[in-house]
Amino acid sequence: MFTSKTEVEVRYSETDQMGIVYHANYLVWMEIGRTKLIEDLGFSYADMEEEGILSPVIDINIEYKKPLKYGQKAIIHTWVQEYSGVKVVYGYEMFTPDGELAIKAASSHVCVKKESFRPINIRKFFPDWDEAYKRARRSER
Questions:
Q1: Per-block average pLDDT, block size 10, for the chain (141 residues)?
Q2: Which one is catalytic: 16, 47, 59, 128?
Q3: Does the keyword Hydrolase apply (predicted)?
Q4: Kind plus residue range of the DSSP H or E element containing 87
Q5: Residue 65 forms part of a structural domain
């Protein structure tokens, strides 16, 4: 599978009183990774939204393995874990600067019409995205 990689600097405001990243901030970093993956595949959420389509999260799963701390960089790996033409599951791994696994996660998404929130078929509405997601799943990781 094709894997997108990006880094995020752990800022002081993202940590708790113990100096470790507050758990909800990983969700924001997952979005950064997902957005970067989509850009690496040649697309953008903004273009999708201009067409009146949104991509809400319908499920999230995060396994916390090792804390990240203030002053470190989180290395985010993101890929298309599953794709059905309607639902996309993105996979994530975040690593410490030493290469240790900090979190393993997945988020499930569907595309919906903005005005009705009714799901759409990605294959039909965005055939270029459909092909790119299929290619990304077949590519070497």
A1: 96 93 96 97 94 96 97 97 96 97 98 96 95 89 43
A2: 16
A3: yes
A4: strand 87-95
A5: yes
Reading the block at residue 9, the tokens are 């600097």
Residue reference for tokens 């999708």: 48
3-state SS assignment for residue 127:
helix
Total domains in the fold of the chain: 1
Backbone angles phi, psi at 135, to 5 degrees: -60, -45
Note whether residue 112 is domain-resident: no
CATH number of domain containing 54: 3.10.129.10
DSSP state of 119: B
Residue listed under structure tokens 């298309």: 80
Tallying the residues shown for the chain, one arrives at 141
Task: Indicate whether 41 belongs to any domain.
Answer: yes
Does residue 16 have an active-site annotation? yes
pLDDT at 140: 54
pTM (two decimals): 0.94
Query: Does some domain include residue 61?
Result: yes
